[in-house]
């Protein structure tokens, strides 16, 4: 089975590297022809993963027409998927398309697999998500992820194709739960970053993580997800990693917000758009999500960090 990775950012490159090390030929697509040529010549993605060599069986290209594999990993930001597939989806009418991003589309409110299915109804849609940093995967450090696909037979095939000695995939048919876990934890990670950045302490961060996890479960149940999915790698596992490490862009973004510092505008922060999209979903589904709501309000400059803290601390006392 052939594999192609669309998107030569850190995560897409890391997946290409680890899958190729397992012996499967991989084609890696970069949006920029200059970037593709640079990687092909140096055998590194020095812009995103410096110091990690590309295996010989990774072919780098900027030609979208060359992406003809029967398993496509879509490693581009969530907010770009709909536009990308509207332009290129006809090229991927069949086979399997696996989203490797986390979030909710701001315009449609759809997750990755529904966005893929809308653009490519003949393809099998799936999502690969869970607690992982690109550099860990690229270096061959042990990592476990969730592979979610509603087609059980396809999920088994993808699990076999994409698992390696160091990348262990657990499958589920609950795409809703896997998507929401990956999307919502980014919002809570921003809140945790703000908490630490504003000097509120480790105990406050633990409280934000715990109550944030309750929010994640609440909305997931409302939207039909299985509770156990949120307790797994794509929910609790990803939350624990993202809320506690400065390697996380979402946590680091929140940290900069809390410290009133500038954040690198060139880095994609999926949780920023997701917070606004999920706050809207919560209102539509009458789901109580106070942390998500204040994060969205802060990002839209409707309230200050101090006002956000006051809003959360002044909420009525209740049973856990």
From TrEMBL:
It catalyses: sn-glycerol 3-phosphate + NAD(+) = dihydroxyacetone phosphate + NADH + H(+); sn-glycerol 3-phosphate + NADP(+) = dihydroxyacetone phosphate + NADPH + H(+). Its main location: cytoplasm. One of its GO terms (molecular function) is glycerol-3-phosphate dehydrogenase (NADP+) activity. Sn-glycerol 3-phosphate binds at residues 102, 130, 132, 185, 238, 248-250. It comes from the Bacteria. Residues 3-154 form the Glycerol-3-phosphate dehydrogenase NAD-dependent N-terminal domain. GO terms for biological process: carbohydrate metabolic process; glycerol-3-phosphate biosynthetic process; glycerol-3-phosphate catabolic process; glycerophospholipid metabolic process; phospholipid biosynthetic process. Pathway: Membrane lipid metabolism; glycerophospholipid metabolism. NADPH binds at residues 11, 31, 102, 134, 249, 270. Residues 174-310 form the Glycerol-3-phosphate dehydrogenase NAD-dependent C-terminal domain. InterPro entries: 6-PGluconate_DH-like_C_sf, 6PGD_dom2, G3P_DH_NAD-dep, G3P_DH_NAD-dep_C, G3P_DH_NAD-dep_N, NAD(P)-bd_dom_sf. One of its GO terms (cellular component) is cytosol. Belongs to the NAD-dependent glycerol-3-phosphate dehydrogenase family. This is Glycerol-3-phosphate dehydrogenase [NAD(P)+]. The lineage of its organism: Bacteria, Pseudomonadati, Pseudomonadota, Alphaproteobacteria, Rhodobacterales. The gene is gpsA.
């Amino acid at each position: 089975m052939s594999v192609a990775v669309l998107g030569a950012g850190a995560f897409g490159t890391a997946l290409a590297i680890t899958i190729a090390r397992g012996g499967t030929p991989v084609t890696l697509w970069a949006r920029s022809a200059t970037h593709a040529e640079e990687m092909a010549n140096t055998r590194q993605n020095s812009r995103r993963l410096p110091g990690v060599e590309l295996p010989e069986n990774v072919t780098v290209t900027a030609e979208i027409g060359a992406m003809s594999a029967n398993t496509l990993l879509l490693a581009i930001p969530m907010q770009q998927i709909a536009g990308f597939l509207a332009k290129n989806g006809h090229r991927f009418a069949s086979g399997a398309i696996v989203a490797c991003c986390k979030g909710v589309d701001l315009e449609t409110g759809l997750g990755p697999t529904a966005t893929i299915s809308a653009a490519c109804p003949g393809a099998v849609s799936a999502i690969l998500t869970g607690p992982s940093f690109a550099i860990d995967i690229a270096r061959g450090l042990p990592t476990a992820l969730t592979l979610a696909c509603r087609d059980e037979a396809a999920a088994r095939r993808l699990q076999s194709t994409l698992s390696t000695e160091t990348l262990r995939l657990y499958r589920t048919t609950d795409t809703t739960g896997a998507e929401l876990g990956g999307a919502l934890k980014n919002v809570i990670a921003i809140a945790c970053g703000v908490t630490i950045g504003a000097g509120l302490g480790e105990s406050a961060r633990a409280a934000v993580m715990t109550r944030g996890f309750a929010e994640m479960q609440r909305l997931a149940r409302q939207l039909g997800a299985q509770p156990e999915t949120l307790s797994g790698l794509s929910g609790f596992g990803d939350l624990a990693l993202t809320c506690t490490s400065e390697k996380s862009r979402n946590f680091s973004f929140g940290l900069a917000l809390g410290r009133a510092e500038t954040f690198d505008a060139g880095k994609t922060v999926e949780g920023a758009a997701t917070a606004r999209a999920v706050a809207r979903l919560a209102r539509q589904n009458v789901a109580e999500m106070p942390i998500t709501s204040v994060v969205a309000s802060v990002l839209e400059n409707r309230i200050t960090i101090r006002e956000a803290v006051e809003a959360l601390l002044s909420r009525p006392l209740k049973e856990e």
